[in-house]
Design goal:
Layout (H helix, E strand, L loop, with lengths): L9 H4 L35 E8 L7 E7 L8 E12 L2 E5 L2 H8 L3 H12 L10 E6 L22 H5 L1 H11 L4 E6 L22 H17 L4 E4 L18 H17 L5 E8 L4 H9 L6 E7 L8 H6 L3 E6 L2 E2 L7 H18 L3 E8 L1 E2 L14 E2 L2 E4 L2 E4 L1 H10 L7 E5 L7 E7 L5 E7 L5 E7 L2 E7 L3 E7 L41
Parallel strand pairs: 3-20, 4-5, 4-12, 5-6, 6-7, 7-8, 8-9, 9-10, 10-12, 13-15
Antiparallel strand pairs: 1-2, 1-22, 3-17, 11-14, 15-16, 17-18, 18-19, 19-22, 20-21
Length: about 525
């Protein structure tokens, strides 16, 4: 296997593609106010050219290099005005989850095919997209290759041996390709003996077992570290408001706050700096993490909230930002459209608009899809997904197919470096021409643009007093990259003073898009 590493510089990373000057474009919901972050400290020179890559809903263009565009026109009627002095949250990363179902499918591939797949996912070289964030389920989810399990199904007998069979080897191979992958740990359920009802499915964590569950999570973090995987971030209950027929946990906000006080003490005693994100559920209940924050004041490791896409709208995240906390977007699964022929295009547009643009224009630092790989039946899985859930890739009979999720993520991670800052830009409303713009640590700028409307749109990007003009087909996504020749990157604002968002986005999707992606599910 060729060992490659993800560089910190877009300019260096794309040199192998013959790219000298870079540019990125994407999607974003309208109406974000100017951030309260610290502005850049130096005036940039005016850009001269940009580079563009495009993916279309019909699949005819898939991260296709569209060549060089010159900053040589005036602003058009539709203009993306970039404001580098408006600096907000960082980009932490994007990726998916290596569920046991995903790991089994990847592990079952011939060695050469497996190596090629993982390089395409985690390397930026050649046609790789450089994924750099994995949300790692801790124990069983609804996507397993065998029966349900935790790491301590019998009290006193803790082991991650089952993860060592397929999951951890895949994670280590991903790390060998991209050592800069960041990991979040997310359990679906504590061991059944800690819960009311005595089952992994549903039930709540008994108060008398808070200490045991905290110790269980500490041991899990330590055991993963011994295997070479650092769980830097943690949530304590996947979808705590959705107890169901697969491993799950019912946990109120008050209960979560109480448990986090116990967990914080255990993590501190173990010398672990793990960050905690509250909630880990849908956009429709931002009151939940706000209540957790109120109940955990003074606990510095409770840094923010994690959100999913199956209810509500991304604008709810702004309430967490307004509370001075950080936002991670941690799960969304695409599903088949009513007409399967439309699945690629519907997923491309809906995910790009909601999981990238609207998410990031409302404080999101991450975009994390759900399963990294699933088979032609959307499995193996143990619940829901009546319209078939889809992974970032499909693996069937030894053949790997890149789904729309691959390109939604690739338009981000191939061009935006971890640590980049979102900077200001004007954008249309949901369903129109939307964008989000970042500045990399090396000063290059990246615009992620989505045209969610059915017809092509001609527009300009204006930065430092110069404009480029481009026409983007209907229902397509593009990334534009350029170098404003600046030697100064935006200063790092205090998270407590991050920008406020005032959005008038409707929350509606473009015609034909599947919303929510897991149709018919209450997840």
């Amino acid at each position: 296997m060729t060992r490659t590493t993800r560089t910190g510089s877009i300019r260096t990373t794309l040199a192998t593609l013959g790219v000298l000057t870079l540019a990125a474009a994407g999607i974003a919901p309208a109406a974000a106010s100017g951030p309260a972050g610290t502005p850049a400290t130096a005036q940039a020179a005016a850009p001269t050219s940009a580079r563009v890559w495009v993916t279309t809903a019909d699949g005819g263009r898939r991260l296709t290099d569209g060549g060089t565009l010159a900053f040589d026109t005036g602003p058009q009627a539709t203009d993306i005005r970039v404001s580098p002095d408006q600096v907000s949250q960082r980009f932490t990363g994007a990726g998916a989850s290596v569920t046991e179902a995903s790991a089994a499918l990847i592990s079952g591939l011939p060695a050469g095919t497996r190596d090629t797949l993982l390089r395409s996912l985690f390397s930026r070289s050649d046609d790789g997209i450089g994924l750099n964030y994995l949300r790692q389920p801790l124990g069983s989810t609804d996507f397993n290759s065998g029966g349900f399990y935790t790491y301590e199904d019998t009290p006193g007998q803790f082991s991650i041996a089952r993860d060592q069979q397929q999951i951890l080897p895949v994670l280590r191979q991903a790390l060998a390709i991209n050592p800069n992958i960041r990991f979040m740990g997310s359990p679906w359920s504590p061991p059944a003996w800690m819960k009311s009802g005595g089952s992994l499915n549903g039930g709540s964590l008994r108060a008398e077992n808070y200490d045991e569950y905290a110790d269980y999570l500490v041991r899990t973090i330590q055991a993963y570290a011994q295997q070479g995987v650092t769980l830097s971030d943690l949530t304590v209950a996947n979808e705590p408001l959705f107890a169901t027929s697969y491993p799950s946990l019912s946990m109120s906000a008050a209960e979560q706050a109480q448990f986090l006080r116990v967990l914080d003490a255990r993590l501190t005693s173990a010398g672990l700096g793990t960050q905690i994100f509250a909630y880990d559920h849908n956009w429709d209940r931002p009151d939940y993490p706000l209540e957790v924050f109120s109940g955990t004041q003074g606990i510095s490791r409770v840094v923010g909230a994690a959100f999913h896409c199956y209810g509500g709208s991304p604008e709810a995240q702004a309430q967490v930002v307004a509370a001075g906390k950080r936002v991670y977007f941690t799960e969304c699964s695409g599903t088949d459209s009513d007409d399967a022929a439309n699945t690629f295009g519907d997923t491309l547009v809906w995910h790009a608009e909601n999981l990238v643009v609207r998410n990031m224009r409302n404080g999101g630092e991450t975009t994390i899809s759900w399963n990294l790989a699933l088979d032609q039946n959307g499995g193996p899985h143990q619940g829901h997904c009546g319209t078939r859930c889809n992974g970032v890739v499909q693996i069937a009979g030894g053949t790997v197919t890149r789904n729309a999720e691959f390109y939604v993520l690739g338009h981000l991670t191939k061009f935006i470096d971890a640590g980049a800052r979102r900077i200001g830009s004007t954008s249309e409303q949901s369903g129109g021409l939307q964008n989000v713009v970042h500045q990399n640590p090396d000063g290059t700028r990246v615009a992620y643009v989505v045209n969610a409307s059915s017809g092509s749109r001609t527009f300009s990007i204006t930065d430092e007093g110069r404009s480029l003009t481009h026409t983007l087909p209907g229902r397509s996504v593009a990334t534009y990259t350029w170098d404003p020749q600046s030697t100064t990157t935006p200063a790092d604002p205090d998270p407590a003073s991050w920008y406020q968002v005032a959005s008038s986005a409707s929350g509606k999707t473009s015609a034909g898009a599947s919303r929510p992606p897991r149709a018919g599910s209450t997840r």
